[in-house]
Specification:
With 371 residues, the protein is α/β, with parallel strands linked by helices. It folds into 3 domains: 169 residues, 3-Layer(aba) Sandwich (Rossmann fold); 78 residues, Helicase, Ruva Protein, domain 3; 42 residues, no CATH class. The chain has 13 helices and 8 strands. The protein has a 5-stranded parallel sheet with strand order 2-3-4-1-5, sandwiched between helices. The chain has a 3-stranded antiparallel sheet with strand order 7-6-8, with no helix packed on it. Strand 3, helix 7 and strand 4 form a beta-alpha-beta unit. Helix 6 packs parallel to helix 7, helix 9 packs across helix 10 and helix 11 packs across helix 12. The radius of gyration is 28 Å and the shape is globular. The termini are far apart.
């Protein structure tokens, strides 16, 4: 008998038979299946992200549409989207729009625009107006490392929404509705195309409301654009909307210095989104809490300082996507020394030497960052 083997010993009815495989499994973890996927102790293959399949649980919306402060033009488009859902039977059955659009069973909406303009909040408020629960789905929930599980997760979230009559919301939808790959060179490319095809099919079959939100609408595949009934562009708040935001966002319980001008705050915060204003108020409140005592109230100076900080962050940190134009690339022309193989590092070239691809006469160029 090989030295690494252990003899199987007979036991009574109280103790199980023992062999080396049992000990090996206890020390090395679950036995692997034929395809290398881990298996549970009873032999069943585990699926989904991690060890269990994702759960798509309906939740009750906490915000109403009356709490969402939007520019008038945006609100009109949102109200039109609600009309499409509320009057679906009248439009498609009584007025027979089904004769020209026979395959549409539900309604898909797309909310797009800069970050912080209230897209996700509005999606939740739409469910509140319709009296439905909401299922929020992000890419991490449906993406799986196991072959074939991502399409199954897509189907599962639609089934849960149908069963509970819930509004299905996909945040950062550009990661899910991205363009299909025309050149499939590896299995991962094929898996991407299969997932996109399953999503298209589920949209055709689903009879409820699906809401997509994104900061990068240009990344959508054209087939998804056609299946989405209404696209609502969310914009940065105008002066009147900013004034209403300042009236609404400051909590009554927040100790505020009396007499400061909300109109001045609205004027100074031009170019900021509602999400930026929430950060401004939170930062100003933290400064007041640090002072404490009688001076522990939020002053106009606290808010102005945080507004300046928010403007600086928008200008210096990151770059907001441009929904109205295609993606751009910053291209740096290589110096003569670099082309000839000198030791000059690429980072040594100044930023002002960067130029657009169309204006670069040199045939040698290196793409750096995507806008």
């Amino acid at each position: 008998m090989p030295g690494s083997w252990k003899r199987i010993t007979e036991t009574d009815g109280e103790n199980p038979r023992y062999d080396a495989r049992t000990e090996e499994r206890d020390h090395a973890g679950p036995l692997a299946g034929p395809a290398g996927a881990p298996r549970s102790s009873d032999g069943g293959q585990e699926t989904g992200n991690g060890d269990t399949a994702p759960q798509f649980i309906p939740e009750q919306p906490r915000r109403s549409l009356d709490e969402v402060i939007l520019p008038d033009t945006v609100r009109q488009r949102v109200e039109l989207a609600l009309d499409l859902v509320a009057h679906h039977t009248l439009l498609y059955d009584t007025w027979n729009l089904r004769s020209i659009d026979p395959y549409r069973r539900g309604t898909a909406l797309n909310l797009y625009g800069p970050s912080g303009t209230g897209k996700s909040l509005c999606a939740e408020a739409l469910a509140h107006r319709l009296g439905r629960s909401v299922i929020n789905v992000d890419y991490a929930q449906i993406e799986s490392k196991y072959v074939g599980d991502t399409p199954k997760n897509i189907v599962r979230c639609f089934e849960e929404a149908h069963e509970h009559g819930a509004v299905l919301v996909f945040d950062e939808a550009d990661s899910i509705l991205g363009s299909r790959l025309s050149r499939v060179s590896q299995s991962a490319d094929h898996a991407v195309n299969v997932s996109r095809a399953v999503m298209l099919r589920q949209l055709d079959r689903f009879d409820g409301l699906v809401v997509f939100t994104t900061n990068f609408p240009r990344n959508y595949d054209a087939a998804f654009v056609r299946r989405i009934l209404t696209h609502v562009k969310f914009e940065l708040p105008d002066p009147e909307t900013l004034h209403r935001l300042w009236e609404r966002l400051l909590p009554e319980a927040l100790p505020i210095e009396p007499g400061f001008d909300r109109g001045a705050l609205a004027q100074e915060s031009a170019g900021l989104a509602g999400g930026d204003l929430v950060n401004v108020i939170t930062g100003a409140a933290a400064a007041a809490a640090r002072r404490g005592g009688e001076s522990g109230v939020v002053t106009a100076g606290d808010l102005m300082l945080e507004i300046k900080s928010a403007h600086r962050a928008r200008a210096e940190v990151g770059r907001a996507p441009e929904p109205d134009g295609p993606a751009e690339y910053t291209v740096r022309r290589l110096s003569r020394e670099e082309v000839l193989g000198s030791n000059v590092a690429p980072d040594a070239v100044k930023a002002e030497d960067a130029q657009s691809p169309d204006s670069a006469p040199s045939p040698v160029a290196a793409p750096e960052t995507q806008a």
